[in-house]
Write a structure and sequence with these properties.
single chain, alpha/beta, Rossmann fold, 2 domains, 7-stranded mixed β-sheet
Amino acid sequence: MTTMTMGKPLRVAMGETITDLAADNDRLVVLDGDTAVSTRVDIFQQAYPERFYQTGIAEMNMLGMAAGMATVGDLIPIVSTFSAFIASRAHDSIRVLIAQPKLNVKLMSGYAGLLAGMTGKTHLLFDDIPIMRAMANMVVVCPVDEVETRSALEAVIKYDGPVYFRLNRGNTPIIFGDDHKFELGKAVTVRDGSDVTVFATGTHTSRALEAAQKLAADGIDVHLVHVPTVKPLDVAAVVAAAQKTGLVVTTEEGTIIGGLGGAIAESLAEFAPMPVKRHGLQDVFGESGPDGDLLDKYGISPPHVADAIREFVATHR
């Protein structure tokens, strides 16, 4: 079994990367909703205080400011706060002020998913991917590690339009080499296999990879595909990977209702019908606790991912 090296938290990689990119791009500005130390846009603040705007706990107003900057200031606003405060609290401002006119605003969604550092259930949001991928004109990006985060940020800053960029809180394993190049709208094969195709996104792909390595010892050969761009979905790659084995499992650190699992199931229902299992968070709200305990409680730790895949394969063999 390959041991994955632990990398920096994605939020740190994000803070460092946008600061580096700002050196050659004076259009980049950052708006923060009183979470800079947590989301690590304080790195940008320290380097470019004149291009950093502290808006306080007023997320809808912050999105309005960003829309104005993108419209009349010819700037590229990077808006940063927790996932729950962007995708849920400020949803209407994003929809009306940014998505409808397709403005060039980048939404850095920190503390996404289950492992939000014991911040409480009010700060946890499991349906941010369904919310954002259902919004017209919105691109949804979920990198897996610090390497992909840095490459993906370069791509989304170059892209002219709104992007929802999903970031988690803790340290994450590195699964890609330094030569990895993120391509907007492209899925990536992480592991070749012949028995079952597994799709994952975000940092959860590293758990899916660990599960695949465990299953290899049991004689189950997993074909693992990482989907860093949930929207626009790489439908051609999804169909090709699914047809490789004829069995599909999706797994995610987010709700299976309308999330990655929903996106994959919708595409396969239309273009290549076959058995699909959606694995991830069910129809639940979260709670605070240590990371490992939460992953086990909600059934998405690597052993639980492996068990779900194993059971599905056994049922259809």
